[in-house]
Write a structure and sequence with these properties.
The chain is α/β, with parallel strands linked by helices. It has 26 helices and ten strands. It has helices at residues 37-65, 71-95, 127-142, 161-177, 193-205, 223-234, 254-278, 293-299, 318-328, 350-366, 378-413, 434-461, 463-468, 472-505, 524-548, 553-564, 566-572, 576-584, 591-594, 598-614, 618-622, 625-633, 643-658, 662-668, 671-678, 681-691; strands at 116-122, 150-156, 182-186, 211-214, 220-221, 239-243, 247-248, 289-292, 332-335, 342-344. Helix 4 links the parallel strand 2 and strand 3. Helix 1 packs antiparallel against helix 12 (434-461), helix 4 crosses helix 20 and helix 7 crosses helix 18 (576-584).
Length: 697
């Protein structure tokens, strides 16, 4: 059924909401939220357990070195301690999820009728992907009792003229087909990136909506989940933000399938643990969450950080900071691990994943300028620390490997001095407890793998879970495959993240590029170009170990194997033929493949509706009067005519007049002039006359 609603404009009437910039140096006293024994005990397990295990492991290494440890051994001890505490926390945080689950409050007897915006920020994204997902959600919501509360709102920061043309054409189709209202706004200047995009929406239309569900360009959520989220936030007047745990879907490449399988099998274990220890002091991941709009406006106006980019400037990883500021103002932030039906995509290749990780690394390290802000709750400071160390752990791990290598070289190449004093009667025998070191190695490995084995155990004990992964044999085979593939890629990610950290330290900004969603097999030449450092880091130590300490190769093989095979792994990370072959063999299947959710199926069915619009270019738009009319319908009114716009109008029209045909006109116009023309109906129609001098379509 098509939408029968009539629209006079691309945007609803403005409903302004103030969003004051927050101070990181001052904070008002905020009301306290209800206290939970479950959260208290979960934090004892997560943090107390990590401190106990980390301290025990560090002490055991100290004992293994003996009383005459040298400076390299003390360096290794420090690096090992940081690593062991980190691994221990990842395990104890998952174990906290074994506590009984919290029962969310029921919705009020009389559901609210206030409006909810499904807000999708886009930046040159594939409009077939975004349009089909929004249409599927819209049609599902229209069938629910609360569907009338929802409106779809696309907030675009697209700066490429062809992407804009395609985006506006897709919007016209979405508006025609959607049973719910659809709005579209594109910012001419993408100041402050996504933060500025969302802030502009809140300031101009925030008062229209009680809540906003923030989506990402590759997000999709089913109507039942959206309805439950609305009911739960309705029932909790002090809840400012409710976060879901999105499931990764849609990956066909080797790397994407591996990561999304890990998320599907181990994610529920991690989600329960995070839900348990966070309580009302939860975090925000920037999408697939429902937010109380007024609370967000009052609390989350982000300041610019002092200093130069990349650490200073506009806050990139805004979500962690917004969660912390909501809590500082006395609003609850919660993640409900039982909210299923929330999905997002995944970068298809190692290069795409590295690009995303680069932006995330910069955003998380920026939090060094926020972590000491006045009035923050200690769990929010912990969230910042977790984000920071999730990237610092790569150079720490690398440093630990290097120090371990130096210790091995010292043992092999430097003769041991047993008599350090001229008058010494008895030798100084070196003390090194190799057996204790082996036990520590296996203890660290066990802690690292325990959450994964808990996920496997859950699958083996619950037949419905095993069936969702293709059956018991498929589950076990996939589990082993994921362990093997992840182990190969782990050292590559370590070196890439280390490179990212040093990039940031030396002041190189990540920029802001549209994320690629297309997988491909990389040419060998490009794979070797990207992997030469990995090859060097793998083969040089391997050759040295073959000649000097061959017995050490077995212990370092998990690291060396991935590095030595890095061109192969880089090339085939985006291999969809291999990924689909694994799926046909029931390896690395996820529940969303064995039993696809209806909303994802519907989105796939709607993609052909948007295919033609998604391929539209500005040059094609100019030659099609119906496309021009649809594009004009997507523009805001009034269109704005400041001094800069008037100058652009004069130069653009002069160049159009001077051109002999449309191709020459487009060649004459610079980027700013083309963007001006595309945003002003009279100029757009004037350019169209150059393509159709007789006024023919």
């Amino acid at each position: 059924m098509t939408n029968k609603l009539q629209y006079d404009a691309a945007l609803p009437p403005e409903a302004p909401l103030e969003m004051p910039i927050q101070s990181l140096r001052k904070a008002k006293r905020a009301p306290r939220l209800a206290w939970s024994w479950r959260t208290f005990f979960a934090r004892i397990i997560a943090f107390g357990g990590a401190i106990a295990l980390g301290t025990l492991g560090s002490w055991q290494l100290y004992e293994a070195f003996g009383s005459e440890a040298n400076s390299l051994q003390y360096a290794l001890l420090g690096l090992f301690a940081l690593t062991f505490y980190w691994i221990a926390f990842s395990t104890t945080a998952a174990l906290a999820g074994l506590l009984p689950a919290r029962k969310p409050k029921n919705s009020p007897e009389h559901p609210a009728d206030s409006k909810i915006a499904l807000v999708m920020p886009v930046y040159g994204e594939d409009p077939a992907m975004t349009g089909s997902a929004l249409l599927a959600m819209s049609k599902q919501l229209a069938e629910t009792n609360t569907g009338q509360r929802f409106e779809l709102f696309i907030i675009s920061d697209t700066q490429n003229i062809d992407a804009w043309a395609a985006e506006a054409a897709a919007f016209a189709i979405l508006r025609r087909e959607s049973p719910l209202p659809v709005w579209y706004r594109r910012r001419p200047k993408n100041t402050a990136r996504k933060v500025g995009n969302v802030e502009d929406f809140v300031k101009r239309w925030g008062a229209r909506y009680e809540y906003m569900v923030m989506l990402d360009a590759d997000s999709i959520m089913d109507a039942a989940t959206l309805t439950r989220m609305a009911e739960r936030i309705d029932a909790s007047p002090r809840l400012g933000l409710l976060q879901t745990m999105p499931r990764l879907v849609g990956g066909d490449s080797l790397l994407a399938r591996t990561i999304q399988f890990a998320g599907a099998l181990y994610g529920p274990i991690v989600a329960r643990g995070v839900d348990a220890w966070q309580g009302q002091d939860g975090n925000y991941w920037g999408h697939n969450a429902i937010i109380r709009t007024r609370a967000f406006a009052e609390s989350c106006g982000l300041p610019k950080l002092r200093g130069r980019r990349p650490i200073g400037g506009h806050i990139m990883s805004h979500d962690f900071v917004e969660a912390a500021l909501l809590r500082r103002a006395g609003w609850g932030v919660r993640m409900d691990g039982d909210l299923h039906g929330s999905y997002e995509g995944i970068p298809p290749t190692l290069g795409d994943l590295a690009g995303r990780e680069r932006r995330w690394a910069q955003g998380n390290l920026q939090h060094l300028g926020v972590i000491a802000a006045k009035g923050l709750r200690w769990p929010n400071r912990v969230h910042f620390l977790i984000g920071i160390f999730s990237y610092l752990m790569s150079p720490i791990w690398l440093a630990m490997l290097l120090v371990g290598g130096l210790l091995t070289a010292q043992t092999l190449l430097i003769p041991t001095e047993y008599f350090t004093s001229r008058y010494q009667l008895f030798p100084d025998w070196p003390t090194f407890d190799a057996e204790r070191m082996r036990l520590l190695f296996f203890a660290a490995l066990g802690l690292l793998l325990l959450p994964k084995f808990l996920g496997l155990l859950r699958g083996l004990l619950l037949p419905r879970v095993a069936r969702s992964f293709g059956g018991y044999l498929a589950l076990i085979t996939s589990f082993i495959s994921e362990l093997f593939i992840s182990a190969l890629y782990a050292p590559l990610m370590m070196l890439m993240q280390t490179h990212h950290v040093f990039d940031i330290i030396f002041g190189r900004d990540s920029g802001w590029a549209t994320q690629s969603r297309n997988a491909t097999v990389m040419p060998w030449r490009e794979a070797f170009r990207r992997s030469w450092l990995h090859l060097f880091a793998g083969w040089v130590p391997l050759i040295l170990l073959i000649f000097l300490a061959p017995d050490q190769i077995i212990w370092l093989s998990p690291v060396l194997a991935g590095l030595c095979l890095s061109p192969l792994l880089t090339r085939h990370s985006g291999n969809t033929r291999l990924g689909k072959a694994l799926a046909r063999g029931r390896i690395l299947l996820i529940p969303e493949e064995t039993n696809p959710p209806a909303v994802i199926n519907e989105a796939d069915q709607y993609r052909p509706l948007f295919a033609k619009a998604a391929s539209l270019t500005f040059a094609q738009l100019i030659n099609d009067s119906s496309a021009i009319n649809a594009h004009i319908d997507s523009l805001p009114t009034p269109y704005g005519e400041g001094r800069d716009e008037r100058l652009l109008a004069i130069t653009a029209h002069a160049k159009i007049d001077a051109a002999r045909d449309i191709e020459q006109a487009l060649d004459y116009l610079n980027r700013d002039e083309i963007m001006y023309v595309a945003g002003h109906p009279d100029s757009l129609r004037y350019l169209h006359t150059k393509a159709n001098p007789l006024g023919l379509a």
